[in-house]
Specification:
The relative contact order is 0.18. This protein has a four-stranded antiparallel sheet, with no helix packed on it. It has a three-stranded antiparallel sheet with strand order 3-4-5, with no helix packed on it. Mean pLDDT is 78; it is low at 29-36. It contains three helices and seven strands; from the N terminus they run ααββββαβββ. It has helices spanning 7-16, 22-27, 84-87, and strands spanning 42-47, 50-56, 65-70, 73-80, 99-106, 116-120, 123-129. The protein is α+β, with helices and mostly antiparallel strands. It comes from Thermophilibacter immobilis.
């Protein structure tokens, strides 16, 4: 009986043989490969006369968010910083830290006038009005 090996240890040893944890790398979801807090969820809705962009930003303050519309590209950037009161504490283990992330989407008929943004309950909502599409295509005749 002393030479018996519990089944869970035997199975664990077989999973890692001969290439160690290589199998775990390929079985892990892509999200686990990125650093925690390196991105946020964002939804874009086409609501007839405007686009409604929502971003889930729990724990992020208004002054840590940057929203820009540049030639149809809406960018939402977050620079989350650790507060001074957290720096003075003596943590044994801490999972929150400083991080930054930027997400963007191209909205071809976005108008600058009437652009609004609101942060409420950890969700940023950006309303981007649409403008009438302009014909930017010029037909060129071939000689």
């Amino acid at each position: 009986m002393a030479s018996m090996v519990p089944y869970d240890r035997y199975a664990r040893a077989l999973r890692t043989w001969p290439f160690g944890g290589l199998g775990d790398f390929f079985e892990a979801p892509i999200e686990s490969l990125s650093a925690p807090g390196s991105t946020f969820k964002m939804n874009v809705e086409d609501a007839d006369d405007k686009y409604v962009v929502t971003a889930e930003l729990p724990g992020v303050k208004r002054d840590e968010i940057d929203v820009e519309l540049n030639e149809g590209r809406l960018s939402i950037g977050v620079q989350k910083k650790e507060s001074d009161e957290d720096k003075g504490k003596n943590y044994l283990y801490k999972e929150s830290s400083e991080w930054s992330a930027t997400r963007g989407v191209y909205l071809k008929d976005a108008a600058v006038a009437g652009l609004t943004a609101k942060l409420e309950g950890g969700v940023l909502t950006v309303n981007v009005p649409k403008q009438a599409e302009q014909a930017n295509v010029t037909k060129v005749s071939i000689d």
